[in-house]
Amino acid sequence: MTGSIVVQMKSMLTQLPESERKAASYMLDEPEEVSKLSIHALAEKAGTSAAAITRLCRSLGLTGFPDLKVRLSVDNAKPQMPGYYDIEPEETVPNVIRKTVSNSLQAIQDTMLHVQPEMIEQVVRSFDEASVIYMYGVGASAIVAADAAQKWLRLGKQAFALQDEHVIAAALASAPPQALFMGVSYSGNTREVVQLFRVAKQYGVRSIGLSRFGSHKISELADMMLYTPLAPEATLRSGATSSRLAQLVVIDILFFAYASTQYEETIAKLGRTHQAISFLK
């Protein structure tokens, strides 16, 4: 399953340098033409340079122009061009269902563009070696942080999603060796989360960021970065809903990758935690 490069280009368009934006705009307007063109022919038609197209490929997280042509061909072959849909006034319930499910599926598919196996493996090793894991997010991202914390807590890790930034700042300042901080923010610029990354860096606590693809404050501060796709702005925040789902998918990928490295121990611990809470039912 491959995420949509068309959606990714649309989302990033306003953030791209002018030379890259010209190439992206042409490809969005004429996606079927790209497969027939060389990089130099495309540059001429778009009014830019081959070097700018190469830089665009890097900005999109692709290996090069051939990879970009393959991604566009996949999108062109779909019966309906991919995208995110906002809810309109007086929308019928069947349309709400269709759009909501479509947005969710699109977010999951687009996540595939940004999940790097090497980084997943690195984060899994860091989780395994961590003496304690502090997790933090604001708003919808707090839900993601809480979900991650309870998952690793059930596996015997000291994992906490603290909601008071003063408390977590104090915890980072007095953290034991091999402590880990994970900050979640879709924008990558949420003030409280960014400040806690600075605190973690100040006290030598290794950090992991979970945020949208692109350049932002968290990507500058985190030791390790996990990216989710950019979602277009939406009046009723269907983009925010999609971004939260993408973040939860990344957490699930981390969890299953972690569990597979110690399968028998994971099954045993999950069984014990299930038994421990059974009296509450």
Automatic annotation (TrEMBL):
<dbReference type="GO" id="GO:0097367">
    <property type="term" value="F:carbohydrate derivative binding"/>
</dbReference>
<protein>
    <submittedName>
        <fullName>SIS domain-containing protein</fullName>
    </submittedName>
</protein>
<dbReference type="GO" id="GO:0003677">
    <property type="term" value="F:DNA binding"/>
</dbReference>
<dbReference type="InterPro" id="IPR035472">
    <property type="entry name" value="RpiR-like_SIS"/>
</dbReference>
<keyword id="KW-0805">Transcription regulation</keyword>
<dbReference type="InterPro" id="IPR036388">
    <property type="entry name" value="WH-like_DNA-bd_sf"/>
</dbReference>
<feature type="domain" description="HTH rpiR-type">
    <location>
        <begin position="3"/>
        <end position="79"/>
    </location>
</feature>
<feature type="domain" description="SIS">
    <location>
        <begin position="123"/>
        <end position="264"/>
    </location>
</feature>
<dbReference type="InterPro" id="IPR047640">
    <property type="entry name" value="RpiR-like"/>
</dbReference>
<dbReference type="Pfam" id="PF01380">
    <property type="entry name" value="SIS"/>
</dbReference>
<dbReference type="Pfam" id="PF01418">
    <property type="entry name" value="HTH_6"/>
</dbReference>
<dbReference type="GO" id="GO:1901135">
    <property type="term" value="P:carbohydrate derivative metabolic process"/>
</dbReference>
<keyword id="KW-0804">Transcription</keyword>
<dbReference type="GO" id="GO:0003700">
    <property type="term" value="F:DNA-binding transcription factor activity"/>
</dbReference>
<dbReference type="InterPro" id="IPR046348">
    <property type="entry name" value="SIS_dom_sf"/>
</dbReference>
<dbReference type="InterPro" id="IPR000281">
    <property type="entry name" value="HTH_RpiR"/>
</dbReference>
<keyword id="KW-0238">DNA-binding</keyword>
<dbReference type="InterPro" id="IPR009057">
    <property type="entry name" value="Homeodomain-like_sf"/>
</dbReference>
<dbReference type="InterPro" id="IPR001347">
    <property type="entry name" value="SIS_dom"/>
</dbReference>
